[in-house]
Amino acid sequence: MRSSPAPDPDVVLRVAELRKVYGGNEVVRGLSFEIRRGECFGLLGPNGAGKTTTLRCCLGLIAPDGGTIEMVGVPIPRAARQARIRVGVVPQLDNLDPDFTVTENLQVYGRYFGIPRATLAARIPALLEFAGLASRGDAGLRTLSGGMKRRLTLARALVNDPELLILDAQPTEPDPQARHLIWDGLRQLLSQGKTILLTTHFMDEAERLATRLAVIDHGTLIASDTPRALIAAHVEPEVIEIYGDDAKAWAEASGRHLASRVEVSGETAFCYATDP
Predict the structure, then answer these.
(1) Considering only CA atoms, which of 146, 151, 145, 147 is closest in space to residue 105?
(2) pLDDT at residue 5 is higher than 60
(3) How far is 236 from 11, CA to CA, in rounded Å?
(4) CB 117 within 8 A of CB 163
(5) Which residue ranges make up each domain of the chain?
(6) CATH number of the domain located at residue range(s) 11-234 in this protein
């Protein structure tokens, strides 16, 4: 009898032929990818592409209807609880406890993992510093901005020193300052060797942070490669803007025959081409 090959210790998450159906609608359709230790892997796609459903399957929060998942070396959903102890999660929406201070939110969350009090007390100052909240440890949640809460949620996801950090995209775009502060924090984590799974619908975020990308739509893998390789293969190098009252009519009559792709926004037609 042939023995199965030993699992690759450098693969932190492996998803193979994942399927999920809701009410007869297949929202994830045979999705496959793997994430290797020390990289930032991006799931890029529009709202409704199946990104959050994929994450929920990977975390064992919902059962898949087909395919296999292995996270931090254990099968999901069979050993999901065991795996989640070694994973950090930043959810889409703020689920911090408004009745606790900034520090108390970290303390309570750390206790869920059974982290000794002394270890937790030593770890929290560095997490607050990382989140840019070192001076706000005693502050109530209601005094924090949306960007501060997002950074605190990121710090909370690191309280158990996870092998894999998962960030689910916010449904609305955060303010630019908050985005860049979080980006800086994620780059710092990558420089320390952390492994990150990032879902996003922002092209610039995926390009700046991800080592590799999987582009999905309607639960199907469209393309997967490094950001630079995907841009070179699928994005035209030139954009010509045609603007004015008649831009939309011109785009319909002529522009679509001249350019590879044409997008119209207001009174401007954006013509994407390899030969301007």
Answers:
(1) 151
(2) no
(3) 33
(4) no
(5) 11-234, 238-273
(6) 3.40.50.300
Pairing of strands 195-200, 40-44: parallel
Lookup: tokens for 145: 């901005």
Q: What is the pTM of this model?
A: 0.85
What's the CA gap between 95 and 14, in Å, rounded?
A: 27
Distances (CA, A) of 207 to 203, 217, 238, 242: 6, 18, 18, 27
Q: Are 198 and 43 in contact (CB under 8 A)?
A: yes
The pLDDT tens digits of the residues spanning 128-137 come to 999 999 999 9
What are the pLDDT digits (tens) for 84-111? Answer: 999 999 998 889 999 999 999 999 999 9
Q: Report pLDDT digits (tens) over 151-169.
A: 999 999 999 999 999 999 8
Contacts of range 60-64, beta carbons closer than 8 Å, 24 or more positions apart: 60/84, 62/20, 64/18, 64/19, 64/20, 64/28
What residue type is 56 in one-letter code? R
C-beta separation of 156 from 111 below 8 A: no
